[in-house]
């Protein structure tokens, strides 16, 4: 029988999509959950704090509010991200740097702020949300792929720096997930995408959420620096 110790959890970008599902899963497991959002709200049972991961002062203020309301952050999930897809020859420098600043430097800002309390407590769970394209690659996503690939190096370096203090840092790499965006694709295009997925279907945001919650839980205490794919086999070997 697995055990679940109630923790204070903060998820960035928890107002929609995968982040929203992750927040729901942690609430269902009995944790104290906060989400950051630039707009909108997290699911019922969560504390929503307005924050922008590209602004260090904004992140610091968000953590301070969560610590005041729910206690020191023990689990942080760096999920906030953006895309600016276009072929490399058409990609502007701003298209590249803005995605890196949100997806990669944003995760760094969040992890650095979270680590202060984790080091003091000698406990912490850091989960970074990457993507199958981080290691698999994707035409038209040089910026996004680079940002998501770099999260692996971030997690592994953090694991080496903080591992002896009871802090783990892992990466979850989702593949094609059922979202409003994929639902709008033409049926023929959806069928073509599914041919490349050994499982023959898209994943659900809830399946990603369960992997994240497991990594943050008591049963995964000896797992750090790992990349957990939730992609139906799409990225095997990458």
From TrEMBL:
All residue ranges annotated as the Ketoreductase domain in the record: 7-180
Keywords, alphabetical: Oxidoreductase
PROSITE patterns on file: ADH_SHORT
GO terms under biological process: monocarboxylic acid metabolic process
Domain of life: Bacteria
Database matches in InterPro entries: KR_dom, NAD(P)-bd_dom_sf, Sc_DH/Rdtase_CS, SDR, SDR_fam
Record bears the keyword Oxidoreductase: yes
Pfam families linked: adh_short_C2
Coiled coil (residue ranges): none
EC id: 1.1.1.100
GO molecular function: 3-oxoacyl-[acyl-carrier-protein] reductase (NADPH) activity
Record carries keyword Oxidoreductase: yes
Secretion signal, residue range per the UniProt entry: none
Matches recorded under PANTHER family: 3-OXOACYL-(ACYL-CARRIER-PROTEIN) REDUCTASE (PTHR42879), 3-OXOACYL-[ACYL-CARRIER-PROTEIN] REDUCTASE FABG (PTHR42879:SF2)
Family statement: Belongs to the short-chain dehydrogenases/reductases (SDR) family.
Name the UniProt record assigns to this protein: 3-oxoacyl-ACP reductase FabG
Gene name as annotated: fabG
């Amino acid at each position: 029988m697995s055990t679940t110790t109630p923790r204070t959890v903060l998820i960035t970008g928890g107002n929609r999509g995968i982040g929203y599902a992750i927040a729901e899963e942690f609430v269902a497991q009995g944790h104290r959950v906060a989400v950051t959002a630039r707009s909108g709200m997290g699911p019922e049972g969560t504390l929503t704090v307005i924050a922008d991961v590209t602004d260090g002062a904004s992140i610091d203020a968000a953590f301070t509010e969560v610590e005041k309301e729910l206690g020191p952050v023990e689990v942080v999930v760096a999920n906030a991200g953006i895309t600016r897809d276009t072929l490399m020859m058409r990609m502007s420098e701003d298209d590249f740097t803005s995605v890196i600043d949100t997806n990669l430097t944003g995760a760094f800002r969040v992890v650095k702020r979270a680590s202060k309390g984790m080091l003091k407590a000698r406990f912490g769970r850091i989960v970074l949300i990457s993507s199958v394209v981080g290691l698999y690659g994707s035409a038209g996503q040089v910026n996004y792929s680079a940002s998501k690939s770099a999260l692996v190096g971030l997690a592994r370096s953090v694991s080496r720096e903080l591992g002896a203090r009871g802090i783990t840092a892992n990466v979850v790499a989702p593949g094609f997930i059922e979202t409003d965006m994929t639902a709008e694709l033409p049926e023929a295009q959806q069928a073509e995408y599914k041919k490349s997925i050994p499982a023959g279907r898209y994943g659900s945001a809830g399946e990603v959420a369960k992997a994240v919650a497991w990594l943050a839980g008591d049963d995964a205490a000896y797992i750090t620096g790992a990349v957990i794919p939730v992609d139906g086999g799409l990225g095997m070997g990458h």
